[in-house]
Amino acid sequence: MAPGPGYTCDDFVDTDPTTSSVIEGKRQEQVIRTWKSTCTYSTYLANKLPTCCVSLSTFYNPEITPCRLCSCGCKLAEDDAKSCIGSSSPYKRELLQCTDHMCPLRVHWHIKKNYRNYWRVKLTISNYNLGKNYSNWNVVVQHPGFSQQATVFSFNNTMPPTVDVPDEVALFWGLDFYNDALLHAEEKQVGSVNRDTFTQGQELIYT
Protein backbone atom coordinates (compact mmCIF):
# COMPACT_ATOMS: atom_id res chain seq x y z
CA MET A 1 0.00 0.00 0.00
CA ALA A 2 1.60 3.27 -1.16
CA PRO A 3 1.25 6.48 0.92
CA GLY A 4 -0.03 8.46 -2.06
CA PRO A 5 0.18 9.16 -5.81
CA GLY A 6 3.67 8.87 -7.29
CA TYR A 7 4.95 6.30 -4.77
CA THR A 8 6.06 2.76 -5.64
CA CYS A 9 6.67 0.46 -2.68
CA ASP A 10 8.21 -2.96 -2.11
CA ASP A 11 6.37 -5.79 -0.39
CA PHE A 12 6.10 -5.63 3.40
CA VAL A 13 8.67 -7.68 5.31
CA ASP A 14 8.93 -8.47 9.02
CA THR A 15 11.44 -6.51 11.07
CA ASP A 16 12.30 -6.02 14.75
CA PRO A 17 9.29 -4.89 16.79
CA THR A 18 9.08 -1.13 17.28
CA THR A 19 9.46 0.36 20.77
CA SER A 20 8.28 3.77 21.90
CA SER A 21 8.44 5.87 25.05
CA VAL A 22 5.32 6.37 27.14
CA ILE A 23 4.50 8.20 30.37
CA GLU A 24 6.88 11.03 29.51
CA GLY A 25 9.73 8.64 28.79
CA LYS A 26 9.46 6.69 32.02
CA ARG A 27 8.62 3.42 30.30
CA GLN A 28 9.21 1.68 26.96
CA GLU A 29 6.42 -0.15 25.18
CA GLN A 30 6.96 -2.68 22.41
CA VAL A 31 4.40 -3.42 19.73
CA ILE A 32 3.45 -7.00 18.90
CA ARG A 33 4.71 -6.92 15.32
CA THR A 34 6.37 -4.48 12.88
CA TRP A 35 6.63 -4.55 9.09
CA LYS A 36 8.72 -2.36 6.82
CA SER A 37 8.62 -1.41 3.15
CA THR A 38 10.91 0.73 0.98
CA CYS A 39 9.20 3.30 -1.24
CA THR A 40 10.40 5.54 -4.06
CA TYR A 41 8.70 8.70 -5.29
CA SER A 42 8.41 9.81 -8.91
CA THR A 43 6.98 13.15 -10.04
CA TYR A 44 6.33 11.48 -13.40
CA LEU A 45 4.01 8.92 -11.79
CA ALA A 46 2.42 11.60 -9.62
CA ASN A 47 1.43 13.72 -12.61
CA LYS A 48 -2.00 12.99 -13.96
CA LEU A 49 -0.87 14.19 -17.39
CA PRO A 50 2.46 13.68 -19.22
CA THR A 51 5.08 16.43 -19.24
CA CYS A 52 6.50 15.67 -22.68
CA CYS A 53 5.53 14.27 -26.07
CA VAL A 54 7.31 12.82 -29.11
CA SER A 55 7.18 13.90 -32.76
CA LEU A 56 8.73 12.02 -35.68
CA SER A 57 10.08 12.75 -39.17
CA THR A 58 12.23 11.07 -41.82
CA PHE A 59 14.45 12.12 -44.71
CA TYR A 60 12.19 10.50 -47.31
CA ASN A 61 8.92 12.15 -46.23
CA PRO A 62 8.40 15.94 -45.99
CA GLU A 63 5.54 15.53 -43.54
CA ILE A 64 6.13 15.51 -39.79
CA THR A 65 4.19 13.26 -37.45
CA PRO A 66 3.41 15.76 -34.69
CA CYS A 67 2.70 15.21 -31.03
CA ARG A 68 -0.82 13.99 -30.47
CA LEU A 69 -3.44 16.69 -30.02
CA CYS A 70 -3.86 17.57 -26.32
CA SER A 71 -0.99 15.23 -25.34
CA CYS A 72 -0.43 17.09 -22.07
CA GLY A 73 -3.65 19.07 -21.93
CA CYS A 74 -5.74 21.14 -24.30
CA LYS A 75 -5.17 24.76 -25.28
CA LEU A 76 -7.73 26.92 -23.51
CA ALA A 77 -7.01 30.18 -25.30
CA GLU A 78 -7.73 32.09 -28.49
CA ASP A 79 -5.95 30.94 -31.64
CA ASP A 80 -3.77 34.07 -31.72
CA ALA A 81 -2.72 33.83 -28.06
CA LYS A 82 1.05 33.86 -27.45
CA SER A 83 1.07 32.13 -24.07
CA CYS A 84 -1.14 29.56 -22.36
CA ILE A 85 -1.50 28.10 -18.89
CA GLY A 86 -0.19 24.54 -18.78
CA SER A 87 -1.89 21.92 -16.63
CA SER A 88 0.69 19.12 -16.63
CA SER A 89 1.90 19.87 -13.10
CA PRO A 90 -0.29 18.76 -10.17
CA TYR A 91 1.20 21.45 -7.91
CA LYS A 92 1.20 24.66 -9.95
CA ARG A 93 0.18 26.11 -13.27
CA GLU A 94 2.97 26.99 -15.68
CA LEU A 95 3.09 29.53 -18.49
CA LEU A 96 3.81 27.81 -21.81
CA GLN A 97 3.90 28.71 -25.45
CA CYS A 98 0.50 27.88 -26.92
CA THR A 99 0.68 24.62 -28.88
CA ASP A 100 -1.71 21.90 -29.99
CA HIS A 101 -0.04 19.43 -27.62
CA MET A 102 0.44 21.81 -24.63
CA CYS A 103 3.48 19.91 -23.33
CA PRO A 104 6.31 21.76 -21.58
CA LEU A 105 8.80 19.53 -23.42
CA ARG A 106 8.89 17.90 -26.84
CA VAL A 107 11.33 15.25 -28.07
CA HIS A 108 11.72 15.14 -31.86
CA TRP A 109 13.25 12.10 -33.58
CA HIS A 110 14.37 12.77 -37.18
CA ILE A 111 15.90 9.96 -39.25
CA LYS A 112 18.51 11.61 -41.50
CA LYS A 113 20.09 8.55 -43.13
CA ASN A 114 19.40 4.84 -43.20
CA TYR A 115 21.92 2.60 -44.98
CA ARG A 116 22.68 -1.07 -44.78
CA ASN A 117 25.70 -0.55 -42.52
CA TYR A 118 24.70 2.48 -40.47
CA TRP A 119 21.92 4.93 -39.66
CA ARG A 120 21.90 8.51 -38.43
CA VAL A 121 19.28 10.30 -36.35
CA LYS A 122 18.94 13.89 -35.14
CA LEU A 123 17.51 14.13 -31.64
CA THR A 124 16.02 17.49 -30.58
CA ILE A 125 14.60 18.33 -27.15
CA SER A 126 12.53 21.54 -27.07
CA ASN A 127 11.39 23.53 -24.04
CA TYR A 128 8.06 25.37 -24.39
CA ASN A 129 8.03 26.60 -20.80
CA LEU A 130 8.29 30.40 -20.79
CA GLY A 131 9.70 30.66 -17.29
CA LYS A 132 11.61 27.49 -16.45
CA ASN A 133 15.04 26.19 -17.41
CA TYR A 134 15.78 22.48 -17.12
CA SER A 135 19.26 22.07 -15.65
CA ASN A 136 21.08 18.73 -15.90
CA TRP A 137 18.40 17.38 -18.22
CA ASN A 138 18.39 13.80 -19.47
CA VAL A 139 16.27 11.77 -21.86
CA VAL A 140 15.85 8.01 -22.22
CA VAL A 141 15.15 6.56 -25.68
CA GLN A 142 13.96 3.00 -26.16
CA HIS A 143 14.58 1.75 -29.70
CA PRO A 144 15.69 -1.55 -31.30
CA GLY A 145 18.35 0.37 -33.23
CA PHE A 146 20.35 0.76 -30.02
CA SER A 147 21.38 -2.89 -30.04
CA GLN A 148 24.91 -1.57 -30.60
CA GLN A 149 26.79 1.31 -28.99
CA ALA A 150 25.92 4.65 -30.59
CA THR A 151 28.28 7.49 -31.47
CA VAL A 152 26.77 10.75 -30.25
CA PHE A 153 28.04 14.22 -31.12
CA SER A 154 28.03 16.82 -28.29
CA PHE A 155 25.84 14.77 -25.94
CA ASN A 156 26.84 12.33 -23.24
CA ASN A 157 25.29 8.91 -23.61
CA THR A 158 25.32 5.41 -22.20
CA MET A 159 23.46 2.15 -22.70
CA PRO A 160 22.10 1.25 -19.24
CA PRO A 161 21.25 -2.38 -18.47
CA THR A 162 17.56 -3.20 -18.77
CA VAL A 163 15.31 -5.85 -17.26
CA ASP A 164 12.19 -7.17 -19.00
CA VAL A 165 12.49 -4.54 -21.75
CA PRO A 166 12.51 -6.01 -25.29
CA ASP A 167 14.28 -3.10 -27.02
CA GLU A 168 17.64 -1.56 -26.24
CA VAL A 169 17.66 1.69 -24.27
CA ALA A 170 19.97 4.71 -24.54
CA LEU A 171 20.35 7.49 -21.97
CA PHE A 172 21.39 10.97 -23.19
CA TRP A 173 22.37 14.07 -21.23
CA GLY A 174 24.18 17.35 -21.89
CA LEU A 175 27.86 18.22 -21.62
CA ASP A 176 28.87 20.30 -18.59
CA PHE A 177 29.00 24.05 -19.26
CA TYR A 178 28.00 23.51 -22.90
CA ASN A 179 24.45 22.18 -23.30
CA ASP A 180 23.60 20.75 -19.88
CA ALA A 181 20.87 23.40 -19.41
CA LEU A 182 17.73 23.39 -21.54
CA LEU A 183 16.81 27.09 -21.52
CA HIS A 184 13.27 28.39 -21.29
CA ALA A 185 11.30 29.50 -24.33
CA GLU A 186 10.89 33.07 -25.53
CA GLU A 187 7.73 34.51 -27.06
CA LYS A 188 8.76 33.59 -30.61
CA GLN A 189 11.36 30.89 -30.00
CA VAL A 190 11.62 27.69 -27.99
CA GLY A 191 14.64 26.65 -25.98
CA SER A 192 16.22 23.54 -27.46
CA VAL A 193 19.23 21.25 -27.61
CA ASN A 194 19.93 18.91 -30.53
CA ARG A 195 22.65 16.62 -31.80
CA ASP A 196 23.17 13.76 -34.23
CA THR A 197 23.35 10.11 -33.21
CA PHE A 198 25.33 7.74 -35.45
CA THR A 199 25.13 3.96 -35.11
CA GLN A 200 26.82 1.24 -37.14
CA GLY A 201 24.95 -1.99 -37.69
CA GLN A 202 21.85 -3.14 -39.49
CA GLU A 203 19.56 -0.66 -41.19
CA LEU A 204 16.49 0.56 -39.36
CA ILE A 205 13.23 -1.27 -39.98
CA TYR A 206 10.18 0.98 -40.06
CA THR A 207 6.90 -0.15 -38.52
From TrEMBL:
Residues 51-78, 94-182 form the COBRA C-terminal domain. Pfam families: COB_C. One of its GO terms (cellular component) is side of membrane. Keywords: Glycoprotein, GPI-anchor, Lipoprotein, Membrane, Signal. It is found in: Cell membrane. It is a lipid-anchor; GPI-anchor. One of its GO terms (biological process) is plant-type cell wall cellulose biosynthetic process. Belongs to the COBRA family. This is COBRA C-terminal domain-containing protein. It comes from Anisodus acutangulus. The lineage of its organism: Eukaryota, Viridiplantae, Streptophyta, Embryophyta, Tracheophyta.
